[in-house]
Amino acid sequence: MAERTLNGIGVTPLSGVGSVVWYRPEAELPDPPEPADVDAESELSRFESAREQAAQELKAERDQTAERVGEEEAAVFDAHIQFLNDPQISDGVEEAIDGGIPAEHAVQETFSGFIEQFENMGGRMGERADDLRDVRDRLVRILSDGERVDLASLPEGSVVVAERLTPSDTAQLDPERVAGFVTTTGGRTSHAAIFARSLALPAVVGVGDELESVEDGDEVLIDGEAGRVVVHPHDDTKAEATEGADVEVHDGEVETKDGVEIEVAANIGTLDDIDLAVERGADGVGLFRTEFLFLDRESPPDEEEQYEAYLKALEAFDGGRVVVRTLDIGGDKPIPYLDLPEEENPFLGERGIRRSLGPDSDLFETQIRALLRAAGSADGANLSVMLPLVASLEELHEAREVIDDIAIDLDALGIEYELPEFGIMIETPAAVFMADEFAPHVDFFSIGTNDLAQYVMAAERGNERVSDLGDYRQPAVLRAIAKTVEAADGNDCWVGMCGEMAGDPDLTELLVGLGLDELSMSAVTVPHVKAAVTETDTADAEALATRVRSASTKSEVTEILTESQ
After folding, report:
1. Among the residues of 413-474, which ranges form H helices?
2. What average pLDDT does the chain have?
3. CB of 198 closer than 8 Å to CB of 218
């Protein structure tokens, strides 16, 4: 059969070959009976019973996911439970039942309206539509006595192909049996993509309707690095794509060909992520997202619990640097027990350092106490503290004063502590423009390319409609990165990167050429980036960076990068 290629978005630098198994979970309901034939009281009782069963299933799946994949990924099931108990949704279902519609049809109808609303919002809110689908399909399955497809026991070598995969679907996939997955919809920040990276599964998303031409049983090759799906691949295509797929894990520090050391670290959300980061050879932690310590609980972690968590991360990397980002909530990261405001545009609202210096100042001070104590422990000399979303010099100075005041208090109490490295994230245009003013007051910058691209290009991350505009290959984003590195030069301020861009091995040479000292990423991509570092010559990388910085369009950038490979 003729080989053909479908293009999408690669979300892991991994390749796999297997046989297609189409997954079509949406239930086809029969036509409902006449309203006069519907017993509303009985249907309401059925709906309540289904909600109870769904809640039990979600809690069990949340616990299983936390154990097998990680707390960060499991947190999505908390959102599902919230949707299940949302009074607007349940009132809508009950109203439909009162109007003479059976429970399963009422669920289908009510959820469809909310799904459409979320999809029209786009971006991260648009991705919530998949959470609603997940809850809807679960309720309909329970109400119609349907059987759930067991994705955990697919034949070995299966490639799951679907229009979309919900968190519940993806959490079932067994990397020992599944060769990867492909979806019609989705982007790099979708739930399916996040799970793929955590499970180290080859995956391509966002292929589009052309994926419907692929049939059950077809052999396909998934190239998660290039973002392509090859149907009926020839032997030489398979050999080329899978050559070097199992990149050797390098446990030590890596250097370029000419001896320039580049730190390659991992992003982690919880302590469960540490083992994978160590296993994949990460030098340390470049981004510890501490907000995940605050999720799935009724109250925030106290100082002692946080101290133990930070200490565990430090001990796991045996002297490697651990960069801890202080609490970054707001935007798309709500915490139920905090009084977060309803904001029309939360990404431009009260989030990150703005809350730490405002309504969450008590939480911030407790966290800083725990961090200073961890830095003062025997193995804590390489702990670094990083502030999120700093946009002004006033914020920087105020946060530094809080840290210094807490150090004075600990000293007075005779409690062992140490002032750790102090840095900020560069993720707004303001931070880029002020970087030369910030640099003398910090030890490091860490560039968060996900938010930086979003804010520089005014294109919401995760919104597929503007995904091309919000790409980090846009010249404006690349120039913002270069300007940040230039501002740090000569100020004893190292520069790292902890966004998706850092984990793209095709861009490693460019990032070395731009002057990055550290790259931090999802643990699964660490070996690939380390391998790319060792193949890089600094002089060539700097020449590449010069050419890229002169480009005026994304297509020019892409062409230059393609020619260099």
Report:
1. 429-433, 435-438, 449-457
2. 88
3. no
Summarised one tens digit per residue, pLDDT across range 268-316 is: 887 778 888 999 999 999 999 998 888 767 889 999 999 999 999 998 9
Q: Is there a catalytic annotation at residue 191? A: yes
Ranges 58-72, 85-99, 482-496, most confident:
482-496
Residue whose entry in the numeric block shows the structure tokens 């009074």: 87
Say whether 5 sits in a helix, a strand or coil: strand
Model confidence at 351, in pLDDT bands (50, 70, 90)?
confident
DSSP 515-563: T-SEEEE-GGGHHHHHHHHHT--HHHHHHHHHHHHT--SHHHHHHHHHH
Hey, what are 474's tokens? 């846009």
**CB of 480 within 8 A of CB of 435?**
no
pTM value is 0.73
- What strand order describes the sheet that includes 9-10? 4-7, 228-231, 219-223, 15-23, 158-162, 178-183, 203-205, 9-10
Asked if residue 282 lies in contact with residue 265, where contact means CB atoms within 8 angstroms, the answer is yes
**The one catalytic residue among 80, 493, 498, 528:** 498
**Catalytic position from the list 105, 191, 493, 528:** 191
Active site residue 498: yes
